[in-house]
Write a structure and sequence with these properties.
Shape: globular
Number of helices: 34
Distance between the termini: 64 Å
Number of strands: 19
Structural class: alpha/beta
Largest sheet: 6 strands, mixed
Helix content: 40-55%
Radius of gyration: 32 Å
Strand content: 5-15%
């Protein structure tokens, strides 16, 4: 994609049409795309592809028109031969090496998907494949194909396949209708191109609103962009009449427009139409300014560096995305050093590809009708055929990929010598852990064999100035002084607190402390605990402090633990002073932190905070064992078997996700005469069906679920591959469900709503949406109990990592851990409060986070069973394993 010919190898006959400004535009386009994909800045960097479309339409159309003027026809064999030589060798090389690297570096499932993406890319149909799959180009949280960027090449090649034939037809019809007049046939082409642009743009406007995913990848919705470039070539004679003194102004106006579009055309805009007009028209202005006249004073585009990057832009575009996707699997590309490595690999591969494959083959006589093609480099060395260089480049690339992969394989974490030495730094919150509470450090030391020293002092903070609000003591900000009191070399350093510090100053002070600790004690594991509060919802100041400490921890590469969650909304855990936890609060904090600190250092807890030996205890032991795992066990189901088809059979085999009158009878399990249980909710509800069947084998369980439709009567939008839209079917389904319950009168109704339901509710304020959800759920529970049913509200699982994406030949289980998001905890509390506020004796709430996570971390498997089929929905084996836990949870209520 991305260009015709470079300056360095331009045949003499074509040098007259070389455009340095166009090469510079290619530089702007490819740099914008790479920065967007690697740094996620600028936000509109993806419009670089649209710049390429305009350039391609202009150059290809100009080439065809010049050939028709010179020969009276268009040589299709010559045109497609040039396109094959220009596009195919480098594109094929990148596809082959990317697929090979995927099988080396990714899971087999992702590698196989990449192979088929390579097949679609080789057939120049990648855009239709991604559109049909509902690929969201702007979804950064979903693992993407390393060949996804080939969609734009497919759009261009489809355009190239049709456009020469259409051009020749229009020229022939125009000349015949007007007695062979070439000028009149040109008018026909001009009218035709205008009609194509207008028609495609109108279609793009409609499709962007109706089906944004299809619009983004569709050739029909993008044709107007290539058409505008073609129109410049068609109206070239008119462009030649532009006064020379106007050209620099037009060029700079277009360049500024491109710059603006990189920042204002964001993924939230309706794209490609109408917002695609801004970068497309701006690019057109730059090209027009240099058409038919000299392009002067546009040095950002016409300098040698810019034009060279433009020459290499095709290779840069081909290589950048596979490098980013494959490297990010092993190396977080959110730091400057790692980003620099990625850029170096991209540039190295691109320059090698350009000089060894792309340019030599494009300027060779291959496909020119000779039996053997001879290549000549600038220094006169000759060899037969492209094979030697292709082989050399392939071997070099394979060695490079292998070396990078080997370098990125995670090393085994350090296991400290037992017993570890632990130091606590902090304020009265930390000091209280060892005095006002259950003498926590001593108990941890006894149970785990730790030697703990508590250097905390009341009223201190991160900030070094005295007189900090809430303190008023000379030793405010003494954390740094506490750290200087560490005389030995501890294995673990725990820093807790920050409540007394001002939010605007805490980040810099915390970063200074964490950095000094890492520098002074490089072999120690440093763990930062968040400030804490019991406010519900958390006030802005506390949230800002927590975010500041977390950011500082990330900047210093230390472990961050959110300890605010146990206290949010639980005033009963706070002592009479309104500030510190009481004994119960410290006990709960101990249950949270003891195993987490143990797991962070490789030392297993042996009974700290463990309840009596029950199924819940055994499950927590299994979860913690999974968190400590250093090697992958044999998983059930195997990773290669995961994906959509690994969801529970009631969903994928029985098709009981969406239930109505037409299939309700086929979505009931158990004897007809048995006690009836009705299951309400969305896809997370049907995912629990094996759990219910294991827990209640002697009862009849009826699925009444509908995907993306919460049981709680709140307005939500439905998400599809075409975006989000209103969901009136959800209201209709709820009405049908309540009617069904009224008729069949189940003894028990189980409700399961997805934890992120509030994100699909209208509005921007999360707190308001949680309150609305809680109120709606409270009303529903009350209505159901009034109808005579016992109600069980079962919390959905917290989100997990998708093993298909994160498990690779070089990964460890630790690479697939997921931190439980605060939003999940907030939703869980709102759901729990909703059941409590219903005042229904026959209503019960079952928490499930301990079934999947421990100390805020969630492994991707438990007891050798893969938890999620897709990172969100349970596998059948995982769901069935929860049956005894549900029975035990209900028996204690």
């Amino acid at each position: 994609m991305l260009g015709m010919a470079s300056r360095s190898r331009m045949p003499r006959a074509h040098r007259a049409v070389f455009r340095a400004d166009v090469q510079g535009l290619r530089m702007v386009a490819v740099v914008a795309v790479i920065l967007d994909h690697l740094l996620h800045w600028p936000a509109g960097g993806f419009v670089g592809v649209d710049i390429f479309f305009v350039i391609s339409g202009f150059l290809i159309t100009g080439l065809l028109l010049r050939e028709h003027e010179r020969t009276g026809t268009i040589s299709f064999s010559g045109f497609y031969r040039r396109r094959i030589k220009r596009i195919l060798p480098a594109a094929t090389l990148v596809v082959i090496l990317t697929v090979a690297a995927s099988y080396l570096l990714l899971s087999r499932v992702r590698a196989t998907d990449t192979f088929w993406d390579g097949v679609w890319a080789s057939l120049f149909s990648a855009n239709w494949n991604y559109a049909a799959e509902g690929t969201d180009y702007f979804q950064p949280d979903v693992a993407v194909s390393p060949l996804q960027h080939y969609w734009s090449l497919s759009v261009e090649e489809q355009f190239y396949f049709v456009w020469p034939w259409l051009m020749l037809l229009i020229l022939w019809l125009g000349a015949k209708a007007r007695a062979g007049s070439s000028s009149r046939s040109s008018v026909s082409v001009q009218l035709a191109i205008i009609a194509i642009i207008v028609g495609s743009f109108v279609w793009s406007m409609w499709e962007t609103a109706a089906s944004p995913t299809w619009a983004y990848f569709s050739t029909f919705s993008r044709a107007w962009e290539l058409g505008i470039g073609a129109a410049i070539a068609v109206f070239a004679k008119s462009c030649a009449r532009i006064p020379d003194e106007w050209r620099p102004a037009l060029g700079w106006l277009g360049l500024v427009g491109i710059g603006i579009s990189l920042f204002v055309v964001t993924p939230e805009r309706t794209f490609p139409a109408p917002w695609g007009l801004l970068p497309v028209l701006a690019t057109a202005l730059v090209i027009i300014a240099g058409t038919g006249g000299e392009q002067r004073f546009l040095w950002p585009l016409t300098n040698r560096v810019s034009t060279y990057v433009g020459d290499v832009s095709y290779s840069l575009y081909l290589w950048h995305w596979p490098v980013i996707v494959l490297m990010s699997t092993y190396l977080p590309l959110d730091t400057v050093p790692n980003q620099a490595i990625a850029i170096a690999v991209i540039i190295g591969c691109s320059i090698g590809s350009y000089h060894l494959v792309e340019n030599p083959i494009r300027n060779s006589s291959w496909l020119d009708g000779r039996v053997k093609a001879t290549f000549r480099n600038p220094r006169g060395w000759r060899h037969r055929g492209p094979v030697p260089k292709l082989v050399a480049l392939s071997l070099t690339s394979v060695v490079t990929v292998g070396t990078v992969a080997w370098a990125l394989i995670p090393q085994e974490p350090r296991t400290p010598i037992s017993p570890p030495e632990v130091v606590f730094l902090g304020d009265s919150y930390t000091a209280g852990i060892g005095s006002d509470g259950p003498d926590w450090p001593t108990s941890v030391s006894e149970e785990l064999g730790w030697n703990a020293v508590n250097l905390a002092a009341g009223g201190t903070g991160y900030v070094t100035e005295a007189g900090v609000e809430g303190c008023g003591k000379e030793h405010c900000g003494a954390y740094l002084e506490q750290s200087e009191a560490i005389t030995d070399e501890p294995d673990i350093i725990v820093v807790a607190g920050g409540r007394n510090d001002p939010a605007e100053s805490i980040e810099a002070a915390a970063l200074k402390l964490f950095t000094s600790l890492r520098d002074a004690h490089p072999d120690a594991t440093v763990i930062a605990l968040s400030p804490w509060a019991d406010d519900d919802p958390l006030n802005e100041a506390f949230t800002a402090k927590s975010a500041a400490v977390q950011k500082a921890a990330a900047g210093a590469d230390v472990i961050y633990v959110d300890t605010g969650q146990p206290f949010v909304g639980h005033a009963d855990l706070i002592s009479s002073d309104g500030v510190h936890p009481n004994a119960a609060g410290y006990t709960k904090l101990s249950l949270l932190l003891a195993p987490m600190l143990a797991e962070a250092t490789g030392h297993s807890p042996t009974g700290v905070g463990s309840p009596s030996a029950t199924s819940a205890t055994e499950r927590q032991d299994q979860v913690r064992e999974a968190l400590r795992a250093k090697e992958w066990p044999e998983l059930t189901p195997a990773v290669d078997e995961l994906g959509d088809d690994a969801r529970v059979p009631e969903w994928v085999t029985d098709h009981c996700l969406d239930v109505d009158d037409s299939n309700a009878d086929g979505c009931a399990y158990g004897d007809e005469g048995a006690e009836l249980i009705a299951l309400l909710g969305d896809s997370h509800a049907i995912s629990y069906m094996p759990t219910l069947r294991e827990a209640f084998p002697d009862q009849r369980i009826q699925s009444l679920t509908l995907q993306q439709c919460p049981a709680a009567p709140v307005a939500v939008q439905v998400r599809t591959s075409q975006g989000s839209s209103p969901y009136p079917e959800c209201d209709d389904h709820r009405a049908w469900t309540m009617k069904w319950i009224g008729t069949h009168k189940p003894q028990t109704v189980v409700i399961v709503d997805t934890w992120d339901t509030p994100t699909r509710m209208p509005g921007e304020d999360t707190v308001d949406k949680l309150r609305e959800y809680k109120s709606a759920l409270t009303d529903l529970v009350g209505r159901l109990t009034e109808m005579g049913s016992q109600v069980v509200v079962l919390a959905s699982p917290p989100p997990g990592e998708n093993l298909v994406d994160c498990k690779t030949p070089a990964s460890t289980p630790g690479d697939c851990l997921r931190t439980m998001p605060r939003s999940y905890s907030e939703w869980t509390k709102a759901t729990e409060d909703a059941v409590a506020e219903s005042d229904a004796a026959d209503a019960h709430f079952v928490r499930t986070d301990a079934w999947f996570c421990a100390t805020g971390s969630c492994p991707a498997f438990v007891a050798g069973v893969a938890t999620f089929a897709d990172g969100n929905h349970l596998t059948d084996a995982a769901a069935r394993a929860l049956g005894p836990l549900l029975v035990q949870a209900l028996s204690t209520q």
